[in-house]
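Milestone 3.1: sequence recovery, worked example.
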């Protein structure tokens, strides 16, 4: 493929997955569905392709990327696995868990993809389209969430196409329908002595602790996971958390949760199911993020299980830029 096509939406059938794999191998970018959020993928062994990710996302270049793999053998080439990682991969891969591991020296992995760190974040996604694409491309795929830096992560192909339509650096958006988890993966750093939770996400901390025992929590927000910027998940209008249904200010839109809410409000989960709320979160924030609105008022979300990750996202979305 000499000339790469401008950004366009394509159904995730076998013909387009093959085309997407050719684009990746030719150094282009493809947005693809995973069970968590859509990723903006490049061949992780191609620095120039990886550089295009930063350009396309307008992302600070020091942010390292997650490397997606088709199977563990593919990761042996560039990452050091140990007893702990083996327990975690057996329990949770493929799935919404990203592991930060020591990076192997001398591998073909782009240095830019890991932003010069001696660690690497690795994930095996549990989505048939992501898996087919990884198999067809036969290279590890570096992919951040497929959104402009500082905006909400995309959980539908249309979200990606809406931001990048006509882009010359992103060449294709594979439409695999809405993401079922709807929150980014949980990131656990096991490259050091103490396993540490760097980012709460689609896999609950409790589930991980049931397998390997207590996780430390990363207190220093900026150094270990540089992508965890305070204003990372921000809509363009103000967002307030823990607002009861009768406390909404004039002009604000309510993002409801649970049964005790006005029926006409958008509701993350009328049944108060946190998995359903997580899957709806970004799409609903987007829907309410309109210039005509004074802000988004979000009802209280219980701080347990996936609620921790939802509240983490909401806190970032409510931080002033
Ligand atoms: O669910 C997900 O994780 C999605 C899908 C596409 O896989 N990806 C995603 O990527 O959310 P991104 O780039 O938006 O977030 C990756 C996070 C960033 O906060 C980054 O700083 C952190 O992972 N990260 C990557 N490599 C790291 C490393 N070696 N050490 C610590 N943090 C790392
Ligand atoms: Mg992101």
């Amino acid at each position: 493929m000499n000339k790469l096509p401008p950004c366009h939406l394509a159904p995730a059938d076998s013909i387009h997955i093959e085309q997407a794999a050719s684009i990746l191998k030719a150094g282009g970018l493809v947005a693809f569905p995973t069970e968590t959020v859509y990723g903006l993928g490049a061949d992780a062994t191609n620095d120039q392709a990886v550089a295009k990710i930063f350009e396309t996302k307008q992302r600070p270049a020091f942010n390292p990327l997650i490397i997606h793999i088709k199977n563990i053998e593919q990761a042996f080439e560039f990452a050091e696995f140990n007893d702990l990682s083996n327990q975690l991969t057996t329990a949770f891969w493929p799935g919404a868990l990203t592991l930060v591991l020591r990076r192997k020296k001398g591998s073909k992995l782009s240095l830019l993809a890991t932003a010069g760190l001696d660690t690497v974040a690795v994930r095996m996604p549990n989505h048939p389209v992501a898996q087919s694409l990884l198999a067809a491309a036969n290279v590890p795929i570096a992919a951040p969430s497929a959104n402009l830096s500082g905006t909400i992560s995309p959980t539908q192909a249309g979200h990606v196409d809406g931001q990048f339509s006509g882009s010359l650096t992103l060449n294709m958006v594979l439409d695999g329908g809405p993401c079922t988890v709807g929150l980014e993966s949980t990131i656990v750093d096991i490259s050091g002595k103490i396993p540490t939770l760097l980012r709460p996400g689609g896999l609950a901390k409790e589930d991980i602790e049931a397998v390997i025992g207590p996780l430390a929590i990363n207190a220093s927000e900026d150094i270990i996971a540089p992508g965890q910027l305070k204003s990372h998940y921000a809509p363009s209008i103000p967002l307030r958390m823990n607002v009861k249904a009768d406390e909404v200010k004039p002009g604000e839109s309510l993002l409801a949760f649970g049964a005790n809410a006005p029926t006409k409000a958008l509701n993350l989960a009328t049944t108060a199911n946190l998995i359903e709320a997580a899957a709806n979160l970004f799409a609903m924030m987007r829907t309410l993020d309109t210039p005509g609105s004074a802000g988004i008022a979000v009802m209280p979300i219980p701080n347990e299980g996936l609620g921790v990750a939802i509240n983490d996202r909401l806190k970032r979305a409510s931080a002033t830029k």
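The chain is about 30% helix and 20% strand. The pocket of magnesium ion (ligand 2) is lined by residues 144-145, 153 (CB under 6 Å).
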